[in-house]
Specification:
Elements (H helix, E strand, L loop, with lengths): L1 H4 L1 H23 L2 H5 L1 H4 L7 H24 L3 H28 L6 H21 L4 H38 L1
Helix pairs in contact: 2-5, 2-7, 5-6, 5-8, 6-7, 6-8
Length: about 170
């Protein structure tokens, strides 16, 4: 299992590079999304690549940190946390694939989601064979997934903060 642990931050950053490079362009080319999905798109008003990149960096920290802990101190807690984060990332890919199917158009995140999801499923299945899923392990996995969902909310807040600072500097400075 150890050979897979450091793939988590690599897969994450590989995927998020597609988003960083393409999302601002995508939102500019598809302004109709703001009218079609006002609740969802509210989070992407005044979207700037710089703010999103800051959010990606913030999200990268737990992926990288937990992976390093699981790699160098492979115990039940860190391995279970790592597994939970890998599950969360895999779910993230499924959501992006679903978004693309629903919108019937390319979304920057789709290609890397298609590439990464089969690899993630393979890694998760292989690791599942070596793990013991007792109550503590399952709870740690669930808590890790929930913490990543909370972290995603924090990343969105960071993105808005950075974009807001940029807006002030552009319009006041």
């Amino acid at each position: 299992m150890k050979e897979f642990i450091l793939l988590l931050p690599i897969i994450f950053i590989f995927h998020d590079m597609e988003e960083i490079v393409g999302l601002e362009w995508f939102f500019r080319r598809n302004p109709d999304l703001y009218d079609r999905f006002p609740r969802v798109m509210k989070a992407y008003r005044n979207f700037k690549t710089e703010g999103f990149a800051a959010a990606v960096y913030e999200e990268f920290i737990p992926f990288f940190g937990v992976s390093l802990l699981a790699y160098y101190f492979p115990n039940k807690v860190f391995i279970s946390m790592w597994y939970g984060l890998f599950l969360a990332l895999s779910g993230h890919f499924i959501i992006h694939i679903g978004q693309t199917i629903y919108l019937k158009k390319y979304i920057p995140s789709f290609v890397t989601s298609l590439i990464c999801l089969p690899a993630c499923v393979n890694i998760l299945l292989r690791c599942t064979r070596t793990m013991t899923f007792d109550t503590v392990t399952i709870l740690i996995i669930i808590v890790s997934i929930l913490l990543m969902m909370l972290n995603l909310k924090m990343a969105h807040m960071l993105s808005h903060f950075v974009n807001g600072r940029m807006y002030v500097e552009e319009n006041v400075g």
